[in-house]
Amino acid sequence: MQAARPRRQQSLAGAPGAGFYVTVMVFVLGLLLAGTRPISNSSLADGFAVFVLVTAGWVLSLIFHEFSHAYLAWRGGDRSIPAKGYLSLDPRTYADPILSIAFPLLVLVLGGIGLPGGAVWINRRAIPSRFVNSLVSIAGPLTNLALATVCLMPLSSGVVSTVEHPVLAAGLGFLGTLQVIAFVINILPIPGLDGYSTLEPFLPRQVRQALVPAQRWGFFVLAGLYFYVPAFNDILWDTVISLTSTFGVERSDVSEGYQLFRFWST
Questions:
Q1: Which of 25, 92, 114, 207 is the Cys-Cys partner for 181 at CB 3.0 to 4.6 Å?
Q2: Longest C-alpha distance within the chain, in Å?
């Protein structure tokens, strides 16, 4: 009986928390609001529906992004993960709720881009394999790419039509594009981002040590590049639009979703 107790505690630690269920319910509400909006009736109501859908959907993507890191770290050898609550899918349990949830959400509302959040705390020393450590890091961006597919496939397949469900199509198109942005940004080899962490296990020890201080500033450097370096902004959006176009999503559809999302500025 005593030997089974740690496994039971680990299972309970992995049960979804209340914060996850609340976020899912808000997301479903956003889907219903956007899916039932009449064509070009009220821009304010349309914008509110898209705002609820995209905001809740973005928070869910942050949850799944961090969960994928934590789950693979746990499977790879870090047995401290369940006790930290990372497998609960509850955003309140993350190591840094400001960097993981609040800061990306603020940037989304102000700038309309999917800036990645701060990572969960992982004991990398407990994961002996360099390959698994790398896989733990790349899991987050790959999760965003998978979520982009989930959001954009209904549009490209015609299940959600821009003619019959224009508000829902605009919301899903913008939310899917945010996932593509998060994927592209996250795979950049900048210290503090998942792209660098994916490469880090294979870098010389001296290089890793020299770049440790830079990791805490990666997110803020990235935000500065986006808002104050037009060339970076252009390259980022060209790459994102190229990827979203593979799903048959037009740039005008994404722009419509962005404008509806920022309904207070119109």
A1: 114
A2: 63
The alpha helices in the chain, defined as continuous H runs, are: 5-13, 18-35, 43-76, 81-84, 97, 103-111, 130-156, 166-186, 194-199, 205-211, 218-228, 230-245, 251-261
Residue 132: per-residue pLDDT: 95
Structure tokens at 207: 């290089």
> 179, 178, 188, 27: which is closest to 111 by C-alpha?
178
Residue with tokens 């960097």: 99
Active-site residue, selected from the candidate residues 66, 164, 250, 256: 66
How many domains, in total, are found in the chain?
1
Residue 217 and residue 192 in contact, taking contact as beta carbons nearer than 8 Å: yes
Q: What is the pLDDT of residues 54-83, one digit of tens each?
A: 999 988 998 899 899 999 999 999 999 988
Residues comprising the chain, all counted:
266
Phi, psi values for residue 158, rounded to 5°: 85, 0
**Is 164 assigned a catalytic role?**
no
Domain containing residue 142: 5-264
Residue 130, C-beta contacts closer than 8 angstroms, at least 6 positions apart: 201, 202
- Radius of gyration for the alpha carbons in the chain, expressed in angstroms and rounded: 19
DSSP string, 17-79: PHHHHHHHHHHHHHHHHHHTPPTTS-HHHHHHHHHHHHHHHHHHHHHHHHHHHHHHHHHHT-T
CA angle 125, 128, 133 (to 5 degrees): 80
Over residues 124-178, the pLDDT tens digits come to 999 999 999 999 999 999 999 999 999 999 988 888 887 788 899 999 999 999 9
In the predicted structure, residue 101 carries a pLDDT above the cut 90: no
